[in-house]
Amino acid sequence: MSEMVADDGLEIHARISDAFSDKSTIHLAEFPKELKSQPIALVTFHGLNVSQNPVHNVIWNAFAQTNDAAPVNCVLRPSEYLYPVPKPKQNYERLVPHGIWKRNWVKKHLEDIPAVAVIFCDLDFRASNWPERRDTCVSMVHCLKVALTGRETRIAVVLIQQTASIPVTGVGSEDALTTERVATLCSLCNVSHKSLFVVPQDKDHVKEYAARIQAALFEMSQAYYQVAARNVKAHRLYQQAYGNLLKLRLVDANCHEIKTVAGFLNYKCCQLLFKSNLPRDAILQFKKHVEMFSRKVGPLAIAFQHQTWMSQQFQLFAELFEQAIRNGLPAVQTQHPGFYYQSAAHHVAVRRKEARKLCSALPVDEETVAGMNLLLDPEETMPYWGQRPWRAGRSLLDPDPATEIAGFNAMQHREATVGVKYSEQIIALLAAAMTQFKSYLSSRMKRHLMVQTAEEFAALSDWPKSLATVNHVIWDYRREKWWSLVSPLLRRAIAFSYRTASRADFIRALIEFLGPKFSTEHKKRPDVVDELHKCLGDAMDGRGPKLKLFDCGGLNEVEERAVANSWVEVMGKACWDAPVVLDMTPISGLWEVRSHFEKSSYALDDMVRVLVHVRLHSPKPANLESVSVSLTPGADRTLTKSRENEDAANFSFSSGESRTFAFAFFAEPGEVGQVLRLKEVKLRIVGKTSIGHSGMTGYPAIVDLTWNLDPESSQGLGVASERDVFESFRFSNSGLEGHCPTSFKLAAITPHEAQLTVIAEHSAPALLGEWYPIVIKIVNDEPCDATSAMLTFGIDAAEGFSDLSVRMSIGHPKLEITSMGKEQSELDLSLEDRDDKNEEETPEAVSDTNAELGLTHVEPFALGTIPGNGGTCEVKIFAKLSKIDEIKFLAQVTYDVKCRRNIPAVLPSQDRRNLLQQPAIVDCSCTTSAVVKTRAVKALETTMTPISLKMESVSKLFVNEPCLLLLNVVNTCPWDVIVKRTKLNLDLALFEGESEDIVEEEDEQIRNLVLAPGEKASECRYAVPLKPITPRAFASSDGPATPAMASYIVHWNRASEENVPSGVMIVPLPCPAVIECPLWLKLLSPSHGYLRSSISIAYMFKNRLDSVLDLSITVEASDAFMFSGQSQVKMRLMPKDETKLHYNLFSLLAGEVALPKLKVECPGIPAYNPVFEALLYRSIPSKIFVMPKGKSTSESGLTPDSDRKVSCLIDSSAS
């Protein structure tokens, strides 16, 4: 219905718009077309013989083409053309005016008197007969000037040349000759050299020359019109002329002339204001104009002429307004051309009313009519605009009363007999208005105008268009529930459909008119029902409905007889065997229908029930032939109950009675998961067959009333809500009490309700990075076996965990199960059997799936057949989480089971037979699931602390200075954790690690160690920085971010799950600051000495800088030793150079004694002194152990060959 009505509305609007496009239907009386056209400079061409001279024809075609840069109106005229002779100037003080605006004044200046007159002459500057041809050209110019005597028209001369070259003044006899001849010709013709042009005969160049000449002619024409505007001062400003016009005394004799001229001037004023982008001023000017003259009706005998003028004013302004909008002027919903087109149509309607009132009684004898025609014949040739034909040029003189009355009678006779198409004019103007209201989204105004358009179609006896227009408006008003507006329109629709003998439209209108929304008089309702039954073929007389209840006047006897004959023909057609389908979706009419499902969802083995409630609003009993309901989607299903197959009493309704029809069926297996919708409800009404008028057999109507219930197709119909339509719906006669139960327009077909239980067993919380074990136990409580059982396990993405990364596997080291036809029996591989290169990867025996988005899940796992009545199945699943968060897993089991459908014992026999035709046992696919909730926590925390060789914590390291890394592993989870082994992978570009001979020993510091919750394990690793490093967390202009100094890898397991693959934790260790010192210092000394014996030591110094380093070295005396060597030394170390200082110590005390204190200073750079002091503290031992001398001890002193070696580096910026 919606598509049909919308298409009809578009077709109606298109037809109306086509009528408007025909400008002949809009009467613009007494308005010069010159005012509406764009004025273009007039240029006349003389001397071209285009019919006999091909060269002249080519030249004319080149000039006749439109040139946007220089727009001129080129007109070809003969040389002997006679121009209007200007009148001699008179003394205007004594002049008696005969009128205001001459009819030919504007036309004369735009189409007759040229701004520029051009003479074309075949004259070549190098022609041998130059004198004769020159004289001919001069004679043509002279004749043209005589014809234009008294005019300011510019004269131009164009010489047609043999060649394309343009003569230019220069040195040489030929150029001098051309210059001389040009000057002579200009002198004889009395024209300026700027008005002399040449054009070649060559076709290839003539267009280029024509464009240049046309631009020059445009400039000359502009100069002409500027001079003319200065000469005619009174008409220079339209606004000033309009003001002067208002000063005239207005009487009935000159009223029409003043209004006509005022309309011209107002039009030009508004046009110029719109072009100047002053729309408010234009609208204000027009409103003042209409307010000024709207009451100046003039003679009342011809008041219709005033309405014609008013309509013309509104229409002209609307056209100006519309053109301005096309040129870019913005408009608003409250101010646009549609209002002015509407006012123009209103004044045409008033004109029709006035004409019918004034022109009703006129003499029709031939002599009188001939006299009237004589009075109006010279109207088109009147010299002034707006004057009466019977007193042309005498508008200011007192008119003759008898002549005036005769003239008015003649105008009335012409208005009555000329056949003015009032309705067509109104329809065209309303169409233009509707187009504007539609553009500015004023739909209600558009509908109001459509009602007026329907009335005008009716005035033209175009009943089909009237009916289509009214039906479209009814549809809109019905959608917005404006019942008070729908009621009178329904009366029109009934009348129009009666006149068109449209049986379907007539039935639809009567059915809606009998609905509860319209206050039809109680006494008339039975008669309206009788008319409806006549259309249906019940108790008809073969003549069709009479319809005396509604206003169907306006038909004469002939038209009434034609309508009656049309109804007789319609009632006798045998084509009524095909049912007439009427869409009742948006209509609250004679029959009310409500339909719904009994429940919102049905299992596959449940019986689906649809209830259809029908109520009759007729004051008389009525019968239904059948009731059917259609459902969708999938294969369309239509359920029908008819009088033939059911109890006929159920299809007979008394006045106001309501009944409920129940439909039952079983859903198909393919419809599981779909949502059933009620698509359509259909009531079929069949009339009775009887013998018609004159023995003609009448054919009863078969009418299908349909209610479209599909929400997609009914979108935008504005169907009334059920609470509104059925607010008083009761089911007292159907056995139901109270209001209608809750309705369900949709019903979901769900699978068979699963009786299989899924139980998940696990130990929460899960540890980050471990293979977390989850045991899924499945118990089958179905009365039969569950076949083709499949398990799907994954993250419940609907709960918002789709951004987690989870790796899962089904299997157990000691469990063998089949997944997708492949054996998984390799899960007993231990981590120790794998290569170190792949020790951080998931073992090959574990098939896993890693997904970042959506449902991360393992592939469906085949469980096979699970026995019924308590049979069980158990599966163990391992999941690895990579993010600390709360998480929900979804364990879902799908299986197939055979279900038996139950048919209720209390069911109508016909419904029971229909249900027994469907299979009693159906294969059902069921799904059940369980949610596994857990949270992931960290199993271990690791920390790293750099320390010096003296086991002191340090904040920065030094290049080539050995250090220790203290690594701690803490159990932070609530379970016992086994740390199987650890490994430190240093970045070899930044640090150097242990030598190969001690790696195995160091690597076994933590191995297979069980940590209880909160316990910590520690180990130390050796490292040597290789280059300076400035820690930088993020990349910047100074450089990239600092990489990690090493990766600390920890292999671990939950203590209760030792047989699953180990979890691997890889921790990047942040790099501390590493600085470089300018001096490298070594101490060569033995590990110990003996009392009263010599100990040899040596200090090695190396300059790490690229510049010379001056040092001052001092060795202070000690009470524990006597030493030989330089106590104060000043040395200069070249870049990258090194040196040694040797000292012999003689021990005086036994035990751990202090060595002589070494002091290093840099006199040139005092900032290095604290750096060197820190270097001595770190790298030089402050004490040495001196043992007492035994009897077997060698007397010889110790040499530095068995010394231990220590080296330190310090950065020059350490100060």
UniProtKB/TrEMBL annotation:
GO terms for biological process: vesicle-mediated transport. It comes from Notodromas monacha. GO terms for cellular component: Golgi apparatus. Residues 1109-1160 form the Trafficking protein particle complex subunit 11 C-terminal domain. InterPro entries: TPC11 (IPR021773), TRAPPC11_C (IPR025876). This is Trafficking protein particle complex subunit 11. Residues 254-513 form the Trafficking protein particle complex subunit domain. Belongs to the TRAPPC11 family. The keyword Membrane does not apply. Residues 820-851 are annotated as: Disordered. Involved in endoplasmic reticulum to Golgi apparatus trafficking at a very early stage. Transmembrane segments: none annotated. Keywords: ER-Golgi transport, Golgi apparatus, Transport. It comes from the Eukaryota. It is found in: Golgi apparatus, cis-Golgi network.
